[in-house]
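Subject: complex prediction, re-run

Hi both,

The earlier run crashed halfway through, so I resubmitted it with identical inputs.
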Amino acid sequence: MRAIWFVSQIALFGLIASRMMSIPDYFQYYVAGLSVMTLYSAAIFIGFDIYEEAEHGVFEYLLSLPVSRRQLVIGRSIGGGLRSFIYVGPLIAVSLYVIGAVNPLSFLVALFALFLFSFGVSGMSITIAVLIKSSDRFDIFMGVLDALIVRLSTSMYPLAVVQAANPLYGGLASFNPVTFAADLFRWGTGIESIIATNFNPLLPLLGVIAFFSLFTFVGIIIYERRIEGGGWQ
Amino acid sequence: MKGIIRMVEHDLRNFFRYKWWLVGLISMNLADLFIMAIVYNQMLSGAVMEEIKSYFNFFAPGLTVTGLFASAFMIGREVNMERRREIHHYMLSLPMTRLELGIGRVLSGGLRGMVYMSPLLLTCFAFLGFPTVAQLLVILVVLFFLAIGISGLSIAIAVSTSSLEKFITARGLVYYTLFFCSSVFYPLSLIQDLGRDGKFPMILVNLAEINPLSNGSDLIRSFLLGTPTFSPNMIFSVLIFSTIFTLVAAFAYIEIIERT
Amino acid sequence: MAPIIRIENLTKKFGNLVAVDHLNLEIEEGEIIGLLGPNGAGKTTAILMLATVIRPTEGTALVGDYDIRKNPDKVRGLLGIVFQEPKMLWVATPWDIVNWHAKVCGLSTQERKQRVKEVLDALDMWEPRHKNVHALSGGMRKRVEMAKVLIQKPKIAIVDEPTAQIDIVGKHKIWNMLLELRDEGSTIILATNELYEADQLSDRVGILHRGKLLVCDTPKRLKDSILGGDIVDVQLEKDAPAQIIEDLKGLKEVVDVMQVKPTNLRLYLNRVEEVVPQIMNLLMKNGVPITSIRMSEPSLDDVFAHYTGLTIEEAQKNGE
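This time it finished cleanly. Structure:
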């Protein structure tokens, strides 16, 4: 379903919508953002898996294994991120084909950032899942978050446009990890120059690293505290 | 008749049990209108701006129709799940006729769409102005027929695919093609221009023109914004679509779920 | 009185597999008839045909006076069915499920409210009535499935493994409620692979194997149909004389006598309740003191094995 959504976004929405925009090459801009949106939605799924496992008793089995809690959460976070990356990989390849030119070195940096981004998103999903503890409330929270985090980012439109539309939106978008990942991906594929002539990749890169670090390490602490003694129930 | 009422009651109640899905959809719809549409307003080309004046105003009716579409389409997922888990055996064992069962399912799917869509339509009126009574009646009737047609389409897909994978694929293809190949997000003229320039398959251009989502959105726009110009074809297109898929779905549902 | 259900050559084929093979059966009004057989014997398929959920390949059945092929709507008006696997969406609640079922079956508001409370309470499902189905255990879901029919009180109740996944206390409750349902006038078709359940509840038991109905009779007559199926073990104070063994063999209904030990005799016979007094009299008349006497009857498993050559467990293992 996600693959069909992705292809229809490129072949239908992206193609038609770019016709109505004043930004040249909006199609390429949108396709790059779409890849990051898809990666986000795939990486977030690990949180839903946690509830599924809790319901079926698999979680108890994992807790009984000769593996430290720290290893468990890092493993889940990396596993979730890696899984989403592998799943979305072919879709990213399609978007690269559509976008065209790629600078190899900057692309590698961008890819590294996307790795960290997907691990960070998985870590965030796990942290929220463990904090909320109710699958219904988690589903609702993630639905709302999903709606806001993608639209309040530069995945679909440049930051300058968001700021012009509403300064509050612009402010929120500036600190959004989806913004960091989308901008870096565009820089890596050489199309950031469409929008900004003096784009500095260092800031978004630091942003992604900070996001990853926060939700991996803080997530570990919260996870460890919450799941001991049946706290996950 | 009683059987139909009971089925509607059953499906409407279950609709509100999918809280997480509803909240997700509402969030996405509101975010589309109050974030995406506002930002897109800043990015439109001069020619498009000339045509639609404001993307927010243009998009609001489209959003109403997408909300109706998504919520009416959901019944198919339930019907497919019932079939896979053999819950339809229980439905078939109930003291009601097969016709009541089939019509009840199609009708309840449509009513779910209408219920979900209502606040979006009110939002539309709040920002774009209220229609006349006659216009309101036409809008509601057309949207109702659109909703049951979509429900019927969804049910027809659900009962005609045997495995989960085939169902997801078929559902996705139909859903996203109808969704994006319409005037919900952009004026029909853009799609037609792309077709004329050879950058878009003409078959999809034709699909967008007859798409009931296009006609539903454009009907509301014609009443509230004055553009595009109202045409009776907007109504006929929806009625034809609805008639075909309501009948197809009702009979397909009865025929196929009894078949083992 | 005419039977309430007449099944005539009812057959269901799934490709080359014959799930139900020319079933012929008459069910009397007000009786509990057990359909006993391992998984895959055809019980559920037969039930689904009677409930007009699936169409027969051949044959038909008359339920009340209605043909399942010609008047399926009217047939469904007489029936209530408890499915083997509970049929419910995971987002629904027991309260919603049973209330809606009662409405569809035409109960008045007052009747519905009263019965829903009574039945859910009796099945210990009143407290969790507003929980989502996905939060319930398998046994709880089965109770909800059972509750639908107990609230409905149909003319004909079809119950498919009514106590599967339910604890022993729950089982007894449900058995009592089924007996009450029968006493209130319902005819009950009970499909089960639990021998004790079939034995205790059923007025008659039909044994199904590979889609065929092999035999149908009261549990007692079925057990008695096994020649020498009853066993009596007699422990004597001293060694049994040879003449005594011959005299015991001469008794009517005694099929065989074995001297397990010099002081221990095992008799294979029919109608144990009639023959035991004769055995006692014979031994006392001949001055042979008895230390103890133990009797056992064949089970329905023995009956199943007698007719099929396999125990129910073996039949299930073979994937019958």
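The radius of gyration of chain A is 18 Å.

- K.
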